[in-house]
Amino acid sequence: MNHSELLSIAGNFGTPTYVYDADTIVQQYRKLQNSFKPLNVKLHYAMKALNNINVLRLLKHEGAGIDAVSIQEVHLGIRAGFLPKEIMYTPNCVSFSEIKEAVDLGVMINLDNLNILEQFGAYYGDSVNCCIRINPHIMAGGNSNISVGHIDSKFGISIHQIRHVTRIVEHYNISVVGLHMHTGSDILDADVFLRGANLLYDVAREFPDLQFMDFGSGFKVAYKDGDMATNVEQVGQRIAESFQEFCKWYGRELELWFEPGKYIVSESGSLLVRTNVVKQTTSTVFAGVDSGQNHLLRPMLYNAYHKIENISNPNGEKKLYSIVGNICESDTFGNDRLLNEVREGDVLSISNAGAYGFSMSNQYNARFRPAEVLIYDGESYLIRKRETIQDLIQNEVEIPALVQQEELVEID
Ligand SMILES: *Cc1c(COP(=O)(O)O)cnc(C)c1O
């Protein structure tokens, strides 16, 4: 997406608006798929990164499945046209009733604690296939909130509890067809993926009926100029080698699954915002924009770096700015950034906003969530309308006794 395309989208659809480029999504998907070429690899898109139905359908056309982390995501996936068998359901800390609902829908269930595993066995015996999420206790990832494999993590069943797992599995005759791990996000190093894989191969010796192994995700993308991204070709080649070796030992070709989110959609997206005020204080020049942490939480939540450009004034003199939102919090998109001179009304583009951007947005300060636009086949399509006041109040229920007399008169 070049700057003039983005600028015309801001003009046509208003701001703040998320824009995604379908070609980039497809390109990232194919790149990852091709990295594991010699293998029977299946990618389940982690839809929590960006769940617009059009993005889901785009990836369905590419042959992707879906990784869903809530029963609602399962429903959205089915609505987008995915078959239940193409959906992996990987919940955490859910009640058994939600597991039952997912089984009824026919999706693959990934169990991540011993109590639920035992309830699953007692209820279903060997009648429903399942996968088990193992926590290999590998410390990896860009931020403690998104590192999920470490010793203090709430995710998965500890690799040290395998004996307890097999005890339950044998007693209830549970049909374990998959093993899964997901150690975190923003993992750069191919060795980390390989270390995890090796640990999972060891666990697999205890499970003779496997059909697949799922190595999760965590592929890192470049946020800053000069940032490194995971070398997926290298990861692919090394995992492919070790996986083939493992399958030979296991005696059967298994499917290899991954569930990338960020890698597929992050770079496809930009958040377009308009500068409301340029404000000089004693210490700083602020560019205050018509969006905030309610629309893109990652800078505030993860201290994430998102590149910001002034697309309205590409030849302006470079100056130092702090780019902030309009929320009653110190919501900052970026500090001390060199931008082409920012004037009130200029449109800024915030990059790498495709993953965990819109999907983490909220209505704090009673602001509307942004519109979403997809550039597909050379056209820009509105794929989600900007919210309205109706969206803010539609679920609110009024207590009649609290309604003021004057208002009652008005209502009558
Ligand atoms: C969030 C998540 C993913 C996707 O992680 P990315 O870093 O966005 O690729 C994959 N699997 C599970 C279980 C997750 O919770």
Report on the architecture of this protein:
The strands form 2 sheets. Strands 1, 11, 12, 13, 14, 15, 16, 17 and 18 form a 9-stranded mixed β-sheet that branches. Strands 2-3-4-5-6-8-9-10 form an 8-stranded parallel β-barrel, surrounded by 5 helices. Strand 17 and strand 18 form a beta hairpin. The chain has 13 helices and 18 strands. The chain is α/β, with parallel strands linked by helices and 412 residues long. It is globular and about 65 Å long. The chain has helices spanning 3-13, 22-35, 53-61, 71-79, 96-105, 114-124, 162-172, 190-204, 232-250, 262-265, 298-302, 389-393, 405-411; strands at 17-21, 41-46, 65-68, 87-89, 108-111, 129-135, 157-158, 175-180, 212-214, 255-258, 269-280, 285-289, 308-310, 318-324, 332-340, 347-350, 371-376, 379-384. It is 32% helix and 23% strand. It folds into 2 domains: 22-264, TIM Barrel; 266-385, Lyase, Ornithine Decarboxylase, Chain A, domain 1 (Beta Barrel), CATH 2.40.37.10. Helix 2 (22-35) packs across helix 9 and helix 8 runs parallel beside helix 9. Pyridoxal-5'-phosphate binds at residues 46, 48-49, 67, 69, 90, 182, 185, 216-219, 259-263, 355.
In short:
With 412 residues, the chain is α/β, with parallel strands linked by helices. It contains 13 helices and 18 strands.
Identify the bound ligands.
pyridoxal-5'-phosphate
Global morphology: globular
Give the strand content.
15-25%
User: From the helix content, strand content and strand pairing, which structural class follows?
Assistant: alpha/beta
What is the straight-line distance between the termini?
53 Å
Estimated helix fraction: 25-40%
- List the uncertain runs: none
Rg over alpha carbons: 24 Å
The CATH superfamily of the largest domain is known as: Alanine racemase
CATH topology of the largest domain: TIM Barrel
Number of helices: 13
